[in-house]
């Protein structure tokens, strides 16, 4: 049992006042970078708990959005205590909703959680053609490309995007994660992605594992 289990639980249950009280008390102890990083990781564990509760149907989209805001608020409190701020930087992600799809709620939730987790996120928007993904990847050289889509037709657009990255010689340099209701294990394999998720918190956890 971790000494920070109560913080994980508070984040997972979206108890904002309790989370802030715990963090304020922690900051007052003048913690080391290692201790701050441990608490940041604890907050991320709470976000995975949020994702699990959402999967069970006990949380709704509004709860996910709030959880992203809560995590961002927590990181804002913890960041000034880090002597080496680079220790919180996780990597770069380019995300966008693929061509033919105008949905962005899931993408935005993932973005807020990824930013709070320390990633530099470049959001190219909705209904984005293959060229938009390729050009952004060339520009910022990310570690990860995230593609979002809610409509079934988005699957073909995702495949086209991965094929476009291959043709541009960029595919081997990035991990590709896909999100959205129509994406399955079989679709992920067909499209040529590295992973898929319908759970934003779990998706961020995967991205964290890729960048070490």
From TrEMBL:
GO terms for cellular component: cytosol. Residues 1-90 form the B12-binding N-terminal domain. GO terms for biological process: homocysteine metabolic process; tetrahydrofolate metabolic process. It holds the Pfam family B12-binding_2. GO terms for molecular function: cobalamin binding; metal ion binding; methionine synthase activity. The keyword Transmembrane helix does not apply. SMART domains: B12-binding_2. It comes from the Bacteria. Keywords: Cobalt, Metal-binding. Residues 90-212 form the B12-binding domain. Belongs to the methylamine corrinoid protein family. This is Methanogenic corrinoid protein MtbC1. It comes from Anaerovirgula multivorans.
């Amino acid at each position: 049992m971790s000494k920070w289990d109560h913080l994980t639980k508070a984040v997972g249950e979206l108890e904002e006042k309790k989370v802030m009280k715990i963090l304020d008390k922690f900051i007052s102890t003048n913690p080391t970078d290692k201790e701050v990083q441990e608490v940041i990781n604890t907050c991320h564990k709470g976000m995975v708990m949020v994702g699990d509760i959402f999967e069970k149907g006990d949380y709704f989209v509004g709860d996910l959005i709030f959880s992203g805001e809560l995590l961002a608020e927590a990181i804002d409190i913890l960041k000034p205590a880090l002597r080496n701020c680079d220790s919180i930087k996780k990597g770069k992600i380019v995300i966008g909703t693929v061509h033919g799809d105008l949905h962005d709620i899931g993408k935005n939730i993932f973005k807020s959680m990824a930013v709070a987790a320390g990633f530099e996120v470049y959001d190219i928007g909705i209904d984005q053609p293959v060229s938009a993904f390729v050009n952004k990847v060339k520009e910022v050289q990310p570690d990860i490309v995230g593609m979002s889509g809610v409509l079934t037709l988005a699957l073909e657009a995702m495949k086209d995007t991965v094929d476009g990255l291959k043709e541009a010689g960029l595919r081997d340099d990035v991990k590709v994660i896909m999100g959205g209701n129509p994406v399955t294990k079989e679709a992920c394999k067909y499209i040529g992605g590295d992973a898929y998720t319908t759970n934003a918190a779990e998706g961020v956890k995967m991205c964290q594992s890729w960048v070490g």
